[in-house]
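Researcher: I'm preparing a figure for a lab meeting and need a structural model of a single chain. I don't have an experimental structure, so a prediction will have to do for now. The sequence is pasted below. Please return the structure as C-alpha cells so I can convert it later.
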Amino acid sequence: MEFLSGKHSLEAAIVNMADEIAQRHHDIEDGIEYNLISKDILMRELSERRINQLEKAYYERFPKFHKSIEYFFKDIRNSILTVRKKGFLFKKIYGKIIVNILTTDLILNIIYNLEK
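Model: Understood. Here is the structure written out cell by cell.
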C-alpha cells in the first residue's frame, strides 16, 4: 500500500479503498442491469460451498475476530436466502453482499496489519 511508503496517510488509503469498493459495487449492479453478468453465475459464486471456503479462510487469517466473522457470515447467508426467495431484489441484495464482503475484508485487514 502506498500509505506505508509515506506518500499517503492511512486515512487517504482508507478513502481510496472505500472508493474502490463503491466503484466495484456499481459496476456489478450495472452488469446485472444490462445483462452483462449472469445472475446464475453470481448465484453459483454464492453457493454454500464457496461461502464456507471464504468463511474458513477468514477464521484462519483472523482468529481473534471469531465473533465478528460469525456475525458477518450469518448476515451473508441471510441475504443469500432472501435473494433466493425474492429474485426481484437480486441486484440490490447482491450489491449489499459484495459491499459487505469487501468492507469487512478491508476492516479486518487494516486491524490485522495495524496490530503487527
